[in-house]
Please model this.
Amino acid sequence: MNAADHAWMARALQLARKGLYSTHPNPRVGCVIVADGERVGEGWHLRAGEPHAEVHALRQAGERARGATAYVTLEPCSHHGRTPPCAEALVAAGVGRVVAAMQDPNPQVAGRGLARLRSVGIEVASGVLETEARELNAGFIKRMESGLPFVRAKLAMSLDGRTAMASGESQWITGAAARAEVQRLRARSSVVLTGADTVLMDDARLTVRAAELGLDAQTTALALQRPPQRVLIDGRLRVPLEAPFFQAGAALVATTAAGREEAYRDAGHELLVLGQERVDLAALLHELAARGANEVLVEAGPRLVGAFASLGLIDEYRIFVAAKFLGSSARPLLELPLERMSEARELKIVDIRAVGEDWMIVAQPRG
Ligand SMILES: [Zn+2]
Model:
């Protein structure tokens, strides 16, 4: 592996990112084919059911793929899914070398695509820009490895760590740029999840709004074709079916109250009974992963986010910080009653940057 390998893989990752808003439940994958130091083909996966990145790149390269090097951000698949296996396509095209950023995370198939290529004498390397490749598909990887989605909690707070006034009034803590960032977080997620308090208090609909995404027309169109599923946690079914949330499209409702399944179905929604006294959040996440959810965005009030946090179910916090004080009677970021310093939750800040007038902190729980 050399500097050129890194540069071409960086290009393949750039292509893979074009699928950020549309490939789920599949991973985002990009591919570049290089012959004699020159790019002869490239492609990326656009949508589930459509050709994989390698197929697009091989088509573009044509005969020039023979003896060339293929850079791909994920191990080429070796199984017959909705499309034929890419490992076979690379063999048929006669490529001389395949460089992958990472192995397939599915323990059942990991290494098989690369092994197939090696078996016919193709030179194989793996692990180029692996950190970046893993980050791009953190949700897909986690689902494959653990049967759970990658859970991201979005929170907005003032500099003094408050989210809403004591009355519940909370609109527009952050500015337009932060709201666009939240729209993009929604659009890239398989699921956007909220609680009854948020829906009742804010009339939240949790939809993706094209005008606020701030993306080019093509990417916006792709994102809107594959909007996230909206999931509501409503243990006692307090949100009426007439609420804007339900009027905005089909939703999945997780509850503890059985017996109303038909009414929800008739209104175009699905009611899922999970748990006895409280909705079993871990069971819900397992169910969502089983349905193909890679990334789940939690946009909820302090109580529900606190419940996810205390169960250790959150992988990443996206905390938007507005440069204002809301004062000491305003509501806290999380309902997480801790008594001793030794109980403090340790986080690692992995990114912090300005978003318009506001700041965004990306943090992950330690340990
Ligand atoms: Zn494939």
User: Anything to note?
Assistant: The longest strand covers residues 150-158. DSSP finds 14 helices and 16 strands in the chain. Residues 52, 54, 76-77, 86 surround zinc ion (CB under 6 Å). Residues 3-16 form the longest helix (14 residues).
